[in-house]
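Workshop exercise sheet. Pairs work together: one partner reads the sequence aloud, the other fills in the structure field after running the prediction. Swap roles for the next sheet.
Pair: D.N. / O.F.
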Amino acid sequence: MTQLNELSQQNGTRRIVAGTAELRGVVVDIVSRAERTLSILTPNLEPEIYEHEEFLVALKRFVLAKTFARVRVLITEPERTIKNGNQLVEMGQRLSSYIEMRNLTSKLRPESRAYCIADTDSVLYRADYATNEGMVAQQAPEIAKLYLTEFEEIWQAS
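Structure field:
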């Protein structure tokens, strides 16, 4: 956490967010700011965030408007997603050239974290996905790269 504190002293904006509506709004904003890549780590494609119409519209706009758009999603509890179905999964199947999803085995699952990263610039990080609280950092490449590095390691191992 010291590394994160040191990074938070550098440029960019950071703030705490709380509540489902605010979390969803931040995710939609992050998607809207993305130029090339979105990297999402989520337990079960949280329907209250990732199945909401506002998010799905922003995501579709991103992948269809950006020439080299790429969305990668790591799902830490896939059994819940499969059982309940999800519109994001359906979109991923239709737009498979842009959206790739991977289910993580229990061996690769990072504790209870969840995040959404745009490019190497913005991130919404939640230390515990069971809560509706998190930290958003925009125009903060040092922080985004910190979580993107973890994401890349898990992605490569999956």
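Discussion prompt: The chain has seven helices and seven strands. What would you look at next?
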